[in-house]
Amino acid sequence: MTQQRYRDLAEWPLMGTALVFLAAYAWQVIGRVDGSGAELLETVMWLTWGIFALDYAANLWLARERHRWFLWNLHELLIVALPFFRPLRLLRLVTLLSVLHRTIGETLRGRVVTYVAGSAALLVFVGALAVLDVEQSAPDAKILTFGDALWWAITTITTVGYGDMYPVTPIGRLVASALMMSGIAVLGVVTASIASWLVQRVEESTEAAAESVEEPLRAELAGLATEIAALRREVAELKDRPSL
User: Fold this and answer.
1) Buried/exposed code over 165-202 (b: 16+ C-beta within 10 A; e: otherwise)
2) What are the Potassium channel domain coordinates in residue numbering (predicted)?
């Protein structure tokens, strides 16, 4: 089996695994589950981590040039390794973005829908979960509920930053930094895509206007060509008639 074939087969199962992890993590953080329930959710999250670790190992094994693939895909190794730190486990959800991008397609409108509806919503939700996880039990914390975390994530990713809520822990600030940079990247791509779409629409309108002007000219030229052909036939008939 080739690596590309494996990636095509594993794409949707990995997306399902990421969704299971997101549901378990969100339930644990928002619901503040303790006891046996927390242990069950933790087990589910570690099982999903194991699946992603196996996926990384399979990709490395099937790669044609393993050393080259390893160097060019260090980010995938980080996605597997860094989640030992609890909030950074959410890096596994990068799989959702890649699958969503492939599913909607490579068209201009597809990219806009992907990055706006997919990336922005997922980043806001994930950022809110991550910062709430580390902030809700910290001394002098400003972000204590999921509603607070969601509001903070929205103002952060849009680079508004009212300053009414902010993380006070080192990991919370790390999450904030990642969310800020992600927000700038997402908004930049969206702006560029919309600009490209507008340019495309103007070009299409210009071409349509040119065609509407050329169509009558083509009809007139066709009529003239028909008349000239008729005149040539008449001239030929006159030449063929015997002279008196």
Assistant:
1) bbbebebbebbbebbbebbeebbebbeebeeeeeeeee
2) 123-199
